[in-house]
Amino acid sequence: MIDNKEILELCNEINDQQNEFIEVDLYNLHKYDIKASDKPSNNTIRKFEETFNVSDYEVLSHKGYVPVKRIGKTVPYLKYTIKTDNYELECADEHIVIDDTYDEIFAKDLNSDSRPDKIITETGPEIVRDVINTGEYENMYDIELEDGSDHLYYTNGILSHNSIWLANDAATFVRMGYNTAVISAEMADHKFIKRIGSNLLDITMGNYDSKSNDKDFISRKLKTVGVGLTPPGKLFVKKYPTSQATVVDIENYLLDVEEKTGCKLKAVVIDYINILSNYRNPNGDNTYMKIKQIAEDLRAMGDRNNWLIITATQIKRSGYESSDISMEDIAESAGLSHTADMIYGIIQDPIMHSNYEYWLKILKIRDGEGKNTKCRFNINYEYMRLTETSDVRSPGDSGS
Predict the structure, then answer these.
(1) In this structure, how many other beta carbons lie within 10 angstroms of the beta carbon of residue 134?
(2) Do residues 111 and 130 touch, judged by C-beta distance below 8 A?
(3) How far apart are the first and last CA of the chain?
(4) Which of 100, 225, 313, 387 could, after both became Cys, cross-link 125 (CB 3.0–4.6 A)?
(5) Tens digit of pLDDT for each residue in 100-154?
(6) Is the omega angle on the peptide bond into residue 272 within 30 degrees of 0, that is, cis?
(7) Among candidates 166, 32, 172, 194, which has minimal Cα distance to 98?
(8) Above 60 in pLDDT, residue 16?
(9) What are the helix (H) ranges across the chain?
């Protein structure tokens, strides 16, 4: 087992190309979380022109209303504007908001492009639609909450200070007793572990940092993991730099995991196919051929080693927040459809979002029936958990 210091080093070395791996010790989940010193709030020094002690004032937080201790007028900061579907916030460039994994992020570091960030708002996670550097400098007002709070509060509806499904799948496999590997070419490994740990152990994302440090609490929680008498499977997580890992790299790593640990893997979750590298033609510009060849190589890897392979792909912008989805909405769908055994469409429009639900639709099934059948899933963002419902609709059903 890798010790605490080595794991933290691995979490930060995103350019590491060695075949080292993180075997996640479920009894010591706190070891894999982001170091406190790495959080923006621990590295940001606010400079104030004046401060005002206040009383009898409260501000809305994700835990209800909390008392305000003081308000500080800062020196001028570069002003940014953050826009989601329902909220807009003008703030400092180093104003800290909370993303959908409950990690801190500066306003200036938010992404609204092809893979936009999601941030926590009063009505749940929302996609960042626009991040504007206004070029203007203004005095800001910073609120300090009472001692003992987690210092999070809503400003214009946004909690301040494109993976849910893949993490949920990994958690489900571990719960069923299957040894599972997660390969990420985008999200940091500690973020994946946090999502899976929250899901498995029934710890809210907001309380994860503190609860994961309580070993007695974690030990009690672990007794509830598994199906019946089946013990949970082992979990392995590996982060590669975006667009650097090939299927050959991934297979070598997974075989190394099996050899060194003696654990036979059953499921491999890859986030995600579009940002892997094609070892057959690394400099090619033909995205259709790239996705087709990577899909073929992933399938062959699974066949050779008896691994279930699950990954995700991008959809076209026209399919964003649509109430339905088809193969035509999937980027490079022809290259994928000839290779994958099953393809599901993940659907969530604004109404579904407000109802905390997704629909999963079978777009392709190689063996059997059920094409275009949909099933509703409930989503609990606090635990990053998806729950299947009995609401299943076949083509031609009313409301399908």
Answers:
(1) 12
(2) no
(3) 49
(4) 100
(5) 777 778 899 898 876 788 898 888 888 999 999 999 988 887 777 765 555 677 7
(6) yes
(7) 194
(8) no
(9) 4-12, 164-175, 189-201, 208-211, 215-222, 247-261, 287-305, 333-337, 350-354
For residue 320, the tally of other CB atoms under 10 A from its CB is 13
CA pair distance 189, 33, nearest whole angstrom? 9
- d(CA 230, CA 226) in angstroms, rounded, equals 6
Contacts of 112 (CB under 8 A, 6+ apart): 128, 129, 130, 131
Residue 388 neighbours by CB under 8 Å, 6+ apart: 375, 377
Number of CB atoms found within 10 A of residue 108's CB: 14
- Could you tell me how far CA 75 lies from the centroid of its own chain? 35
CA distance 363 to 312: 13
DSSP 64-98: EEEEEEEEEEEPPEEEEEEE-SS-EEEEETT-EEE
The chain-wide mean pLDDT, for the chain, equals 79
Token couple for 167 = 């993490």
Helix (H, G, I), strand (E, B) or coil at 135: strand
pLDDT at 158 over 80: no
**AA letter at 301:** M
What Rg value do the Cα atoms of the chain yield, rounded? 22
| pTM of the predicted model as reported, rounded to 2 decimal places | 0.66
**Domains of the chain (ranges, CATH numbers):** 40-160 (2.170.16.10), 319-400 (no CATH)
